[in-house]
Q: What sequence folds into this?
């Protein structure tokens, strides 16, 4: 063999080894789903779909694959950006294929293993079924499950990956959805400053501590620790001001559910603006201003948003400043930058 060719071959082998080593390092410390200290028991059915390294890696590949959309340009990650806590940053409502707009703000993919239902109106009650909604939505990915599965079945790479993950090359709706769920339930945020304080590893600053006390007094009835949501549906009055979105009523057809939306978790809230189901509030200051003085006393508004017969939650400027200081302790850089969750 010519010396030059030999050197080129050695370099190529070294590069391939390095690439493979880096790929292996990407999930080399994979431990499966871990229950964070201080969190309640997860509600996702891991007995039916245990998280494995191969299943997780397949789910991650699917999550970042634009081939799940009808025009091969939009992946799950297009609307769920990791550095924005898997939301779609800066956009009030979702933007999908051909720049089509949805009707609601993109919710985060985070701590889903503790949720009983999904979407702002709770229209999906099983995480394994959740991806069907965006894949088949005209304004999001605009495809059909059959079309997506056909493309995956035509891929030698995917057939091999499904075989590694589930034991055979047969790509079914069930295995496809379970792979995505294995990735999504691993999107766990539990290492913010707040968590460190609760574990007695550090302490709040004076402003953060004051904000924490104000938060517990004024906000925690709905945003309960440690997930910072009670997973309920409530009417905050926004839909009657902005878009006439009937919310939970569209699922239950109960008049009492009109204009109710899921209480969002507040972890990583510093990275998920704009806020509310319609993305109408741009900053945390806007949110607190709305709750303090912007709520209109309309029919069906949640009773917790009334004090002494007046709509709103009393907060002065100092309390708002301190609450925001506390909310920033819920941001979790280790989650936002976790390479295991990256493309």
A:
């Amino acid at each position: 063999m010519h010396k030059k060719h030999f050197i080129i071959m050695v370099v190529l082998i070294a590069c391939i080894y390095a690439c493979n080593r880096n790929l292996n390092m990407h999930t080399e410390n994979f431990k499966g789903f871990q229950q964070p200290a201080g969190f309640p028991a997860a509600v996702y059915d891991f007995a039916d779909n245990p998280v494995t390294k191969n299943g997780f890696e397949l789910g991650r590949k699917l999550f970042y694959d634009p081939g799940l959309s009808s025009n091969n340009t939009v992946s799950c990650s297009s609307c769920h950006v990791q550095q924005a806590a898997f939301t779609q940053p800066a956009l009030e409502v979702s933007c999908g294929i051909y720049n089509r707009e949805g009707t609601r703000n993109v919710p985060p993919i985070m701590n889903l293993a503790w949720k009983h239902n999904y979407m702002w109106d709770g229209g999906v009650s099983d995480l394994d079924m959740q991806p069907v909604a965006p894949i088949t939505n005209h304004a999001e990915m605009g495809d059909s499950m059959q079309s997506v599965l056909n493309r995956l079945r035509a891929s030698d790479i995917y057939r091999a990956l499904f075989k590694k993950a589930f034991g055979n090359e047969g790509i079914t709706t069930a295995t496809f959805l379970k792979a995505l769920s294995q990735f999504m339930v691993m999107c766990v945020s539990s290492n913010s400053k707040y968590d460190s304080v609760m574990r007695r590893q550090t302490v709040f600053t004076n402003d953060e501590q004051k904000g924490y006390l104000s938060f517990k007094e004024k906000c925690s009835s709905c945003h309960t620790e440690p997930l910072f949501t009670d997973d309920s549906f409530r009417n905050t009055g926004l839909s009657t001001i902005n878009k006439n979105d009937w919310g939970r009523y569209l699922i239950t057809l109960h008049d009492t559910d009109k204009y109710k939306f899921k209480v969002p978790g507040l972890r990583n809230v510093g990275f998920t603006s704009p806020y509310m189901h319609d993305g109408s509030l741009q900053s945390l200051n806007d949110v607190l201003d709305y709750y303090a003085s912007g709520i209109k006393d309309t029919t069906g508004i949640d009773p917790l948003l009334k004090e002494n017969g007046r709509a709103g939650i009393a907060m002065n400027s100092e309390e708002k400043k301190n609450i925001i200081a506390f909310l920033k302790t819920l941001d979790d850089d280790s989650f936002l930058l976790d390479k295991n969750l990256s493309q």
The longest strand covers residues 233-234. The domain at 31-188 is CATH 1.10.760.10 (Cytochrome Bc1 Complex; Chain D, domain 2). Residues 284 and 324 are 7 Å apart (CA to CA). The chain is about 40% helix and 0% strand.
